[in-house]
Write a structure and sequence with these properties.
This protein is an alpha+beta fold. It has one domain: Extracellular Endonuclease, Chain A, CATH 3.40.570.10. Helices cover about 20% and strands about 25% of the residues. It contains 4 helices and 10 strands; from the N terminus they run E-E-H-E-H-E-H-E-E-E-E-E-E-H. Strands 1-2-5-8-9-10 form a 6-stranded antiparallel beta sheet. Strands 3-4 form a two-stranded antiparallel ribbon. Strands 6-7 form a two-stranded antiparallel sheet. The relative contact order is 0.16.
């Protein structure tokens, strides 16, 4: 599904996006941001059993953004679409409001620093995943976030964040993009790199981004 600010691959099986991809630029982050309305909505593009905001009520899970609302407040349309339920994944509150929020803030800092980055985010499920509520929404055991710096010199970094509270430093969750590909079975940035086994995918040095 293509949105103004991001694209996503929706899974009818898991009832959420399995990946969300977007370009994050310093220019859009520095311009005047629209007011965040926090209005969750069923996605009109999903015709069969769409997830509704109420499907998360009293489940103990937050409606966790995959494409963060704070990355999408540069227009009213992008802010609105970031609250579609296809962009939500069940997150333990301590994760969503803690370590996950800290990672999202760090990525925005990197976007301002590097001028233009590509971000892909999604859930990771166990073989016997838990289902949440009457809508039976799949609950991830963790989330991944992979980042490509689009301005020279190019570099990559990735994170795998367990779906639970943590006070650990962000850098302790750093992994290579290669590792995320092995876990998910996806091939990231295939249209942007000359070869799928690009050396950039083996990088996982947090210090390169300081």
């Amino acid at each position: 599904m293509n949105r103004k600010g991001f694209a996503l691959g929706y899974s009818q099986k898991y009832k959420q996006a399995i990946w969300v991809s977007y370009i994050l630029e310093a220019e859009t982050l520095r311009q005047k941001q629209v007011r965040r309305k926090n209005k969750f909505r069923a996605d009109p593009a999903v015709k069969r059993a769409p997830v509704k905001p109420g499907d998360y009520t009293k489940t103990g899970y937050d409606r966790g953004h995959l494409a963060p609302a704070a990355d999408m407040t540069w227009s009213q349309q992008t802010e609105k679409e970031s609250f579609y339920m296809t962009n939500m994944s069940p997150q333990i509150p301590g994760c969503n409001r803690g370590i996950w929020k800290r990672v999202e803030a760090q990525v925005r800092k990197w976007a301002i620093q590097e001028k233009k980055i590509c971000v892909i985010t999604g859930p990771i499920f166990s073989d016997k995943y838990k289902k949440m509520g009457k809508a039976k929404i799949a609950v991830p055991v963790a989330f991944y976030k992979v980042i490509l710096d689009l301005t020279p010199p190019r570099k990559m970094i990735a994170f795998i964040i367990p779906n639970k509270p943590s006070k650990r430093r962000i850098r302790s969750f750093t992994v290579s993009v290669d590792k995320v590909e092995c876990i998910t079975g996806y091939n990231f940035f295939s249209e942007l790199l000359e070869h799928p086994d690009n050396e950039l995918k083996k990088q996982s040095n947090f210090s390169d981004w300081k």
